[in-house]
Amino acid sequence: MKKMNTLKVGQELFFSGIIYTARDQAHKRLAEAIKAGKRLPIELKGAIIYYCGPTQTPKGKVIGSCGPTTSSRMDEFTPLLLKSGLKGMIGKGNRSQEVKKAIKKYKGIYFVTYAGCGALLNKYVKNVKKIAYGDLGPEAILKLEVKDFPLIVAIDVNGRSVYGQD
Questions:
Q1: Is residue 46 part of a domain?
Q2: Residue 3 within a domain
Q3: From start to end of the chain, where are the E strands?
Q4: Is 68 helix (H, G, I), strand (E, B) or coil?
Q5: How many structural domains is the chain composed of?
Q6: Among 18, 50, 105, 132, which one is most buried in terms of CB atoms within 10 A?
Q7: Catalytic site residues?
Q8: Does the pLDDT value for residue 70 go beyond 50?
Q9: Number of H helices, E strands in the chain
Q10: What is the DSSP letter of 75?
């Protein structure tokens, strides 16, 4: 993939590499660990988090349905994670002004992917490993190895948004 700093709002791309799943409760625990100065279960520097809680894995598949969840539910935690090195996020929907400012300040990037197509998106996941917070069930942090995962740049490193100026 091109360097993320060169990606422009609205650009479509296919990502191959590592992404981590994390939703509401995992974000809360990550934020609490950062505030407490504790070691995180993943290295945030340069990481991409996918707002996703996959369904149970069917026989013969690597992962169950794995579509994006509404990103704004993570907004209260996102600025702190960006400040701590998070580079990218994948989800669906618009972000708060505070998150947009943090994306611009910390040169992060926000991608969206196809909502309602979780059963289709699982074909791009080649390997899955549970990393942390297994007690959260589908909201545990998973390490996904993906190939040609479809993304659209929703907010670029300059803070430009496909959702326009709010």
A1: yes
A2: no
A3: 12-21, 48-50, 88-91, 109-112, 125-132, 141-155
A4: coil
A5: 1
A6: 50
A7: 27
A8: yes
A9: 4, 6
A10: T
Structural domain of 21? 13-155
3-state secondary structure of 6: helix
Report if residue 97 sits inside a domain.
Answer: yes
Helix runs in the chain, H state only: 24-35, 78-83, 97-106, 118-121
Q: What are phi and psi of 89, to 5 degrees?
A: -135, 145
* Predicted TM-score of the model (pTM): 0.95
The answer to whether residue 40 is domain-embedded is yes
Rounded to whole angstroms, the Cα distance separating 38 from 132 reads 14
Q: Which residue bears the tokens 């993570």?
A: 74
The CATH number of the domain where 27 resides is what? 3.20.130.10
Closest Cα to residue 107, out of 6, 24, 2, 1?
Answer: 6
SS3 21: strand
Read off φ and ψ for residue 21, nearest 5 degrees.
-85, 145
| pLDDT for the residue numbered 166 | 53
Per-residue pLDDT of 83-123, as tens digits, reads: 999 999 999 999 999 999 999 999 999 999 998 888 899 99
Per-residue model confidence (pLDDT) at position 1 = 44
